[in-house]
Amino acid sequence: MESTLFQVQSLFYQGAYQGCIDLALSSTSNARSSDPASVSTLLYAARSHLARSPSDPASALSLLSSLAAEPQVQAIQSLARFVQAQTQDNTDAMSREIVNLTELLDHAVVGEDKGQTIRCAAATALFLDGDAEEALNTLGVGSGSSSSSKEIECVALGVHMLLSIHRLDLAEKEYLAARAWADDSLLIQLIEAWIGLAKGGRATQQAFYVYDELAQNPSAAGTPNAVPSLIGKATALAANGDWQGAKKQLDDAAALDPSNAHILANRAVVETHTASQAAQEYLGQLKQVNAAHPLLAEYAALERAFDEHAAKFSLGATAEA
């Protein structure tokens, strides 16, 4: 079971969420729900339901309903309810779950896997609620010093948050600090790739190598589990201006998982740089798959801003000015 847990964990880290869910369910169907490895395996599956696009909190809650109310299980259940409340714009329910997650942090012992899971769940809810500073504090990430977290999932999530708020400098410090004690970790490789994509230039080449190696892994190559790595390769190529190369990687990914929201989002972006008329088509498909995708929200915001400025524009006023 331990080897299966490692595979499930690796799929989760790589963003192969459906593969993670499928393997977790098939490997725990005859296992005792109280077995620690089975609990950890199902927690990764539940987290995959929450991380996928679109998120599926109902399936996450259903998956965990038969497990004992251990703190790490309660944390993922609470995060699922938070995500569910957020999709319903239920701010009262969101606040209740953040309070619940904050209280569960009392059970998050440093160095224990369950403690890491609780911290990641609480920090995710805080970040989604707009409190990046408290989310990073919860993870013990953001200083890049020797006192930074020594829990690799906390570090990886923290780096992702730092990059999201455009603090590349702090993300690099966390990466360098973590390399001293987790240099052979899959998450360290992925963190290096994320930072490479954020930095741009020559650093994107190393990001490409990381994703290329993962995509060619015999356990993933030619299956939907390779899709996140193919998207990563496409992103690295696009960052270097190789739009045709990026398009080829996304075409390969689409052949494995045609309705993947992240493939559609990236195809829409890439097509705007290849003199193609397909960008709007992909945006339309993305809206059908996940109407709440961040790209669609940003696109709609830009359209509104353009319309507002266009409504104020006057050739006569411009000439007089």
Automatic annotation (TrEMBL):
Molecular function per GO: structural molecule activity
GO biological process: endoplasmic reticulum to Golgi vesicle-mediated transport; intra-Golgi vesicle-mediated transport; protein transport; retrograde vesicle-mediated transport, Golgi to endoplasmic reticulum
Subcellular location: Cytoplasmic vesicle, COPI-coated vesicle membrane; Golgi apparatus membrane
Matches recorded under Gene3D superfamilies: Tetratricopeptide repeat domain
Pfam families per the UniProt record, alphabetical: Coatomer_E
GO cellular component: COPI vesicle coat; Golgi membrane
Keywords, in A-Z order: Cytoplasm, Cytoplasmic vesicle, ER-Golgi transport, Golgi apparatus, Membrane, Protein transport, Transport
Role summary: The coatomer is a cytosolic protein complex that binds to dilysine motifs and reversibly associates with Golgi non-clathrin-coated vesicles, which further mediate biosynthetic protein transport from the ER, via the Golgi up to the trans Golgi network. The coatomer complex is required for budding from Golgi membranes, and is essential for the retrograde Golgi-to-ER transport of dilysine-tagged proteins.
PANTHER family: COATOMER SUBUNIT EPSILON
Name under which the protein is recorded: Coatomer subunit epsilon
Organism: Sporisorium reilianum (strain SRZ2) (Maize head smut fungus)
Taxonomic lineage from the root: Eukaryota, Fungi, Dikarya, Basidiomycota, Ustilaginomycotina
